[in-house]
Structure formats: structure tokens, C-alpha cells
Amino acid sequence: MEMTTEAAAVPSIEPEQTTVTVDVLHTGAVAIDRALAYEEQTWHPAPETGWFRSDSNRVWVPVSAYLISHPEGPVLVDTGWHTDVRTDERGHLGRVLSSMFDARLPDGAAVTEQLADRGLTPADLASVVITHMHSDHVSGLDLVRDAPEILVSERALADATGRFSQNRFLAGNMWDGIEFSPFGFEESGLGPFGRSHDLFGDGAVQLVWTPGHDEGQIAILARTVEGWVLLTSDVIYGRQSLQDGSIPGLTTDREAARTSLEWVRSVADRSDCVAVLPNHDPNVQPGRVTSQ
Ligand SMILES: [Zn+2]
Fold first, then answer.
1. How far is the CA of 171 from the centre of ligand 1 (A)?
2. Which of 5, 57, 210, 244 sits a CA distance of 20 to 30 A from 37?
3. pLDDT value at 24 more than 60
């Protein structure tokens, strides 16, 4: 799959267009093998699992969620860890996932606790948007089940719930009884493969198809008064990948992962891009995103 120049094109921001604000929430942390975040050349067949790997490869990184404030209502992006990981991490993650990584959720950090701090309940949200179905992004789904709608791309949902899904880092119990509103991508010309979904129909929040780490993964382009904010989800694990070009160690399609990474780089290079925020980058601080 080749990225065309027009496909990479992000529109310029015009005065009078609707803008949003973006808040970064750290909804706990996860200890992962470094090879999950940055692909390694090694004799090991699956270093991203951390199995039979030295503890020195293990790093704690934040698990982010985001609150986007649009005039039509607040949008929560991803859900962080469920409060169950505080008392029964193994039960919540299951045997396989808990052998790959550790979860940590400090008091007050759960997504609903942070919404409550802002005087919000899940029912007050316009929607919840899931970037992909890996456990660290959907663990808290049950906490926000009262949201008016929970959006996920048709491809991400099919990839996660297919009978023969080979997708790692999934835990089906995390979406038990959750009613999703799956969305398809439009041939918009936006993104590495020219496909995206315009959440409110006004261009302010674009859900951009960025496959590679996961078939149906999206990145989110949010238009703020200061410029574009790009939430990369796990297209890259840290901004270090903008420099060294490393893709995640866990991919469903390495070539697509590279194309998605190149698109993220092309957005980062724009003068009207305020911030590029990988979900698990330890250097990204919680709070309102501004150009400062
Ligand atoms: Zn992740």
C-alpha cells in the first residue's frame, strides 16, 4: 500500500471554523516490554510479549485517554484501565495478558473519576470513541457504558471479535454486553490511505484510518484554535519514532504500519500542527493541550 501525496493532505484551518479543546488524561500506567513499543531485531520470535525476556527490557508507560470538547458535547477517546485492576488485575486481564504486562491505576485516575472531577458523568458525553480494541484502550468500557454511543471502526471491531482473531492483547470480557456503534470510513482523501470518518460532519474531529499496529486502528485529528492536534493512538508509542522511524513491535501489517507512521511524520512537520500525542509517551503530560 502506497501513500499518495494528496492522501497525506490535511486541510488548512480557516477562521470561523468550529474548533475543539483537547485534554490529556493519564488513566494509569502499563509495564510493557520495550520491544512492544519499538520493533527490535532479535532472535526472539515474539519479544513484544516479554516472555523469557530480561526485566531490564520492562518499562512503565502511561495509558492515556482524552477528552475533546466540541460544541455538541464532550467526546471521550479510549477508556484507560478499569477500577478492577486495583483489586484483581489477573482476573480482569486474564492469564495470558497478565503474563505480558502489568497494570497500575492510582486512586482518582480511573476515567470516570476524572470525568467526575469535571462534573461529568458518562451520560453527559456526546460519545466515546475507541481507537482500537487492545485491552489498555478498552479496559474501562464497562465504566462508561451509559454513554449515548460508543464508536469503533467496523474493521477494528471485526478484527477483535472475529471467531479466528489472531489479534493479541485482546480480552473479550472487557466488552461483554457493550453495545457498539460501528462506523465505516469514507473515501475522504485524508490520512495514509485516504480514508477517514468526520465525527461531527464539520471537520473538527477526524477519525483517520491508520492501520498497521491493528487492522482498524484510528488516529484522531482535532482542530483547535491554535492548530491541529494529532492523537496517534499506537501508530507510534513515543515521539522518539518521529525521529528514528521505529514502528511498534506488535503489528498486523508492518508495511501499513510504516505508511501510517510516515503520515504521522508528515502531519508533525506541518507548521499548523500544535502537538502529536502518542498514547503511551512518558513525555506527554496530562492537561489541556496548547502550543506552549
Ligand atoms: Zn496501547
1. 13
2. 5
3. yes
